[in-house]
Write a structure and sequence with these properties.
CATH class of the largest domain: Alpha Beta
CATH architecture of the largest domain: 3-Layer(aba) Sandwich
Helix content: 25-40%
Number of domains: 2
CATH superfamily of the largest domain: Type I PLP-dependent aspartate aminotransferase-like (Major domain)
Distance between the termini: 48 Å
Shape: globular
Number of helices: 12
Largest sheet: 7 strands, mixed
Radius of gyration: 21 Å
Strand order of the largest sheet: 2-8-7-6-5-3-4
Structural class: alpha/beta
Length: 376
C-alpha cells in the first residue's frame, strides 16, 4: 500500500525553522516556563522535587481526575493522557476502525486522522462546509455521506483551518447522523477556550451520545505545545482498549509534563491562561484584518469564531503553493490552502504579539503590491 505523507506537517517541518515570521503554526504564541510558573504563583524551585521516573502509563491519576472534572459524568477511568492530540488520533484510528469500515469527515479540516485512516486502507467520504454560508455544515450532504459502513464520523470543533464553531443545531445533526448508523463520533476539541467572538467556551460533544470520543490537549488554546500533553475522554471500555495501544506506541507521557499539565489545569491557573489566549486571538485577528483590508478585492475571510487561525481567500494569479513560496522568499511562512484541498486560500495564524505579527504582515502587503502592479 502506498504511503500518504501528512502533508501539512511535512511542510511545517521542512520550512518552519528557516523563516523569520512563522504564521503557519496553529496555536497561540507559546508560553515560556517562567510565564506559566508566574501565572500559577510558583517559583522555579517548585519543580525541583519532580521525579523523572515514569508516571502512570495512562497519565497520573491526579491529572486524569482534573481533566475528567471538565466533562460532566466522567471520572479518571474515562480519561487517557496521550502524547498530544496527535497520538490520540493515531490511537483512535488503530482502535476504532476494522476491515470494511469507512470514515466520514468534514472539509476543510485538520487532516491527520483522515490521513492515518487512508494509510490504513479505509475509505474517507467528505462533507464540504459551505464557505458562502460562513463555513456552515451542509446537513443534507452529511446525511448522504453516512452509510452502514461508516464507523467514524470525524469532527474538529472549533474548526481548523476556518475557526468556525458548530451551532447547537449542527451538533445535534452530527450526533443524529452518527447515531443513525451506530458510528463513533470522534470530536477534536483542541481549540475550545480560544474563542474570539464570545466568552463562553465551545461545548464538548461529550455526553451528547454514548459513542463519543472527545480529544483535547494543551497545545492550542493553552499555548503549551512543547509539553506534548493531550487526552481522550470516552466510555471506559474503549479507553481501556486505547490504553493497550498507547503502551505499544509510546509507553507513557513524561512525569514533568504531567506535573506541569496538572498545574495548567488548576482551577485558579486555567482561567488566566485562557484569558491570555483570548487576548492574543482577538488582538491578532484585528491586526490581520486591518492589513488584509489594505488591498481591496484581493483578500476576503470569514472571521474565525475561535482559534489562532484564519482561512483567507485571495484573488491573485498564483496558486496557494506559489503564493506561499513567494512569501517564504520574504521569510514569512503561511500554509497553502492546497494542503487542505482548497486552492486560492492561505491559512494564517495571527494569535501572536504585535512585534512578531506586524513586520511579517508588512512583507505580505509589499508582496501583494508588487503582484498587483504586475497585473496592472
Amino acid at each position: 500500500m502506498s504511503f500518504q505523507p501528512f502533508e501539512i506537517e511535512a511542510y511545517l517541518s521542512r520550512y518552519e525553522q528557516l523563516v523569520r515570521y512563522n504564521y503557519a503554526e496553529s496555536g497561540v504564541q507559546p508560553l515560556i516556563l517562567g510565564e506559566l510558573l508566574a501565572l500559577a504563583g510558583r517559583e522555579p524551585a517548585w519543580l525541583a522535587d519532580t521525579s523523572l521516573n515514569y508516571p502512570e502509563v495512562n497519565g497520573s491519576r491526579a491529572l486524569r481526575e482534573r481533566i475528567a472534572s471538565r466533562y460532566p459524568g466522567a471520572d479518571a477511568d474515562n480519561v487517557l493522557v496521550t502524547v498530544g492530540a496527535s497520538e490520540a488520533n493515531l490511537l483512535a484510528a488503530t482502535t476504532l476502525l476494522e476491515s470494511g469500515d469507512e470514515v466520514v469527515a468534514l472539509c476543510p479540516t485538520y487532516l491527520q486522522f483522515t490521513g492515518i485512516a487512508a494509510n490504513l486502507g479505509f475509505p474517507v467520504r467528505w462533507v464540504p462546509l459551505r464557505e458562502a454560508a460562513g463555513w456552515a455544515l451542509d446537513v443534507d450532504a452529511l446525511n448522504a455521506a453516512m452509510t452502514p459502513r461508516t464507523r467514524v464520523l470525524a469532527v474538529v470543533n472549533p474548526n481548523n483551518p476556518t475557526g468556525r464553531i458548530l451551532t447547537d443545531t449542527e451538533m445535534d445533526a452530527l450526533v443524529a447522523a452518527a447515531d443513525g448508523v451506530g458510528a463513533w463520533l470522534l470530536a477534536d476539541e483542541v481549540y475550545s477556550g480560544a474563542e474570539r467572538d464570545r466568552d463562553t467556551e465551545t461545548p464538548s460533544f461529550h455526553g451528547r451520545y454514548q459513542r463519543v470520543l472527545a480529544l483535547n490537549g494543551l497545545s492550542k488554546a493553552y499555548g503549551l505545545p512543547g509539553l506534548r500533553i493531550g487526552w481522550m475522554v470516552g466510555p471506559r471500555e474503549i479507553i481501556e482498549s486505547l490504553w493497550r495501544r498507547h503502551e505499544y506506541a509510546v509507553v507513557s507521557t513524561s512525569a514533568l509534563a504531567n506535573r506541569l499539565a496538572l498545574l495548567a489545569l488548576d482551577d485558579a491557573v486555567r482561567p488566566r491562561i485562557i484569558h491570555r489566549t483570548r487576548a492574543l486571538v482577538r488582538e491578532g485577528f484585528g491586526l490581520l484584518e486591518r492589513h488584509l483590508a489594505r488591498h481591496e478585492g484581493v483578500f476576503s475571510v470569514v472571521p474565525p469564531q475561535a482559534s489562532a487561525l484564519s482561512f483567507v481567500r485571495y484573488e491573485l494569479p498564483l496558486s496557494s503553493r506559489e503564493l506561499a513560496a513567494r512569501l517564504r522568499d520574504q521569510e514569512v511562512l503561511t500554509v497553502p490552502g492546497e494542503c487542505f484541498g482548497m486552492d486560492r486560500h492561505l491559512r494564517i495564524a495571527s494569535a501572536l504579539p504585535p512585534e512578531i505579527l506586524v513586520p511579517g504582515l508588512e512583507r505580505l502587503n509589499t508582496l501583494v503590491e508588487s503582484l498587483t502592479v504586475q497585473q496592472g
